[in-house]
Amino acid sequence: MEIIRRQTDYALRALVYLATRPGLVVNAGEIAANEDIPLDFLLKILQKFVKTGLVASHRGAQGGFSLAKDPAEITVLEIVENMQGKIAMNRCLLGKDGCPNGPRCPLKKSWIALEEKLVNYLAGITLQDLVQEQRNIQKDQVSG
Known about the structure:
This protein is mainly alpha-helical and 144 residues long. It has one domain: Orthogonal Bundle (Arc Repressor Mutant, subunit A). The chain contains six helices and two strands. The chain has a two-stranded antiparallel ribbon. Strand 1 and strand 2 form a beta hairpin. Helix 1 packs across helix 4 and helix 1 crosses helix 6.
């Protein structure tokens, strides 16, 4: 089972890349090359984030992309839900199309609790946290 899809992984890596270059306009080709993301796929991801207001698009010879918000204000939950939709551990928790066995399901409370924990966990991690973690990893690689 795949909880975080490949396109979401690409999105997270691309946004971390942008967040490590505050105030700069970065060409999509640079992001794709450095993060090993297919360029066509990356462009679709970035355009999705332009529409949601997380990324700004800059046209022209020096064009590219930049973050439109402070990385400390962007949560992993926001990124995941922009890419994959609302977090739902099981279709029975989706509401209108929920499982008809919901009222008597012994797992429903567990699914709800797990979903709440996952949502809260992802909401508690910011893009800035990921940038700091990347810096720590790089620092450890240099010193180790």
